[in-house]
Amino acid sequence: MDNRLLGIYLNDQLAAGVLWRETARRAQRNNDGSDLGHALAQVAAIAEDVATFEQIMQRLGVRRNPVKTALATAAERAGRLKLNGRLTSYSPLSRFAELDLLTYGIEGKKVLWQNLRDCARLGERLLDVDFDELIARAQRQRDEIEPFRLAAGAAALGGSPADGADLRRSSGGFRARLLGERTSH
């Protein structure tokens, strides 16, 4: 096995994980006090995955590339500067863009754990790392935010009447409608 190539791959993935972790934290802060904020708190466990990933790198003797992680952090900060339809405030497009990016990150993380388990054969080398559970956790995170992503997309792109306001306060009713559940309203 070429550990040099594995090291490059791991550092690239660590940088991506840092980007998604910072995005999840920002999105959680922006939606604190809502159902979405609660769901994002569950997804913010991405920080746990980054820590697990760093431990795997350390066990494999792969040195962390601080430049790549610094660039990822800078990219997340720069992403805040994009136009979102409002000059100084959070908009429905901001929410949707954050959730969309998190969805890409979670899917990427799921593929990462599969690649490490199967392609790098780390499932055989690191028997105490439960790659199947890491993959399942990524799927649970995706399932947790998907109804909110769809609602945010409808609010931002489809011009829903509330312009995303009910998503911010309590998305339970909107989420239930998306999932075909009954509400008590």
What report would you give on this structure?
This protein is mainly alpha-helical. It has one domain. Helix content is 75%, strand content 0%. The C terminus is likely disordered.
Features:
single chain, 185 residues, mainly alpha, 9 helices, globular
Mean pLDDT: 81
Strand/helix succession: HHHHHHHHH
User: How would you name the oligomeric state of the polypeptide chains in this document?
Assistant: single chain
What is the domain tally?
1
% residues in beta strands: under 5%
- What is the helix content? over 70%
Measured distance between first and last alpha carbons: 59 Å
The main β sheet shows up as: none
Structural class: mainly alpha
Low-pLDDT sequence parts: 161-185
Helix count equals 9
Global morphology? globular
Number-wise, the strands total 0
Radius of gyration: 18 Å
